[in-house]
C-alpha cells in the first residue's frame, strides 16, 4: 500500500503511516530525546529535521513537521487514553509480548463498571506502550491531575512578565561608514 493518499481535505496528500513507520518514528523520537534534542516536553527543530530525513531515506516518503506532529498527536492521545483509564491500578499489567493489558476478569468488570470506555482495551492491542511510557510518561508526571484530563484544558498563567528580548538589527550605512573609516568592525547596533 502506498504511504501517500491523494485527496485529503486540506488539499495536500495524506500520509498513511505503516506499523514500520510508526515504530521508526517512536524509536527516532526516543533517540532524539536521549541525545538532548528535547526540552520542556517539546522536540527541537533539529529533531524534526533528523526524523524527516530518516523517514525519507528509509521509506522513500516525503513528510514534513506537520505530518510528524499530527501522527505524534494521534499516538499520544491513544497512549493517554490507556494511561487515564488504567491509572495506577496495580492489578492491571501491561504485557509487551501480547501488546495488551492483562488482568483478572473481575478486575476488568469493576473497571468497565466505573469507566465503560475501558472495555475496548480488554482485547485491543497498543503497540510500543512501554516505549511510549518512556516518551510521554514524564510529561504526565509534570502536569497536575486536572490538566491531564482531556475535558478540561487549562493554560498556566505567567507568574512573571515575559523577558524582554534583544533584537539584532543590521548596521545602517552610517555605522558601516564609521566602521570603515576607523578600521573597526561593528558587531551590533548600539541600540
UniProtKB/TrEMBL annotation:
<feature type="domain" description="Myb/SANT-like">
    <location>
        <begin position="17"/>
        <end position="110"/>
    </location>
</feature>
<dbReference type="InterPro" id="IPR024752">
    <property type="entry name" value="Myb/SANT-like_dom"/>
</dbReference>
<dbReference type="Pfam" id="PF12776">
    <property type="entry name" value="Myb_DNA-bind_3"/>
</dbReference>
<protein>
    <recommendedName>
        <fullName>Myb/SANT-like domain-containing protein</fullName>
    </recommendedName>
</protein>
<feature type="region of interest" description="Disordered">
    <location>
        <begin position="137"/>
        <end position="191"/>
    </location>
</feature>
<feature type="compositionally biased region" description="Polar residues">
    <location>
        <begin position="169"/>
        <end position="191"/>
    </location>
</feature>
Amino acid at each position: 500500500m502506498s504511504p501517500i493518499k491523494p485527496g485529503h481535505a486540506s488539499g495536500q496528500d495524506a500520509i498513511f503511516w505503516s506499523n514500520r513507520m510508526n515504530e521508526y518514528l517512536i524509536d527516532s523520537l526516543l533517540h532524539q530525546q536521549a541525545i538532548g534534542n528535547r526540552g520542556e516536553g517539546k522536540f527541537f527543530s533539529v529533531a524534526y529535521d533528523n526524523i524527516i530525513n530518516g523517514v525519507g531515506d528509509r521509506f522513500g516518503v516525503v513528510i514534513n513537521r506537520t505530518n510528524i506532529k499530527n501522527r505524534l498527536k494521534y499516538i499520544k492521545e491513544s497512549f493517554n487514553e490507556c494511561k487515564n483509564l488504567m491509572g495506577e491500578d496495580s492489578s492491571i499489567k501491561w504485557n509487551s509480548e501480547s501488546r495488551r493489558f492483562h488482568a483478572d476478569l473481575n478486575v476488568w468488570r469493576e473497571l468497565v463498571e466505573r469507566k465503560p470506555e475501558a472495555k475496548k482495551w480488554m482485547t485491543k492491542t497498543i503497540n510500543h506502550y512501554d516505549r511510549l511510557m518512556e516518551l510521554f510518561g514524564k510529561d504526565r508526571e509534570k502536569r497536575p491531575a486536572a490538566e491531564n484530563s482531556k475535558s478540561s484544558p487549562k493554560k498556566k498563567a505567567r507568574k512573571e512578565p515575559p523577558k524582554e528580548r534583544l533584537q539584532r538589527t543590521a548596521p545602517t550605512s552610517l555605522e558601516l561608514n564609521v566602521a570603515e573609516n576607523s578600521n573597526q568592525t561593528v558587531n551590533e547596533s548600539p541600540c
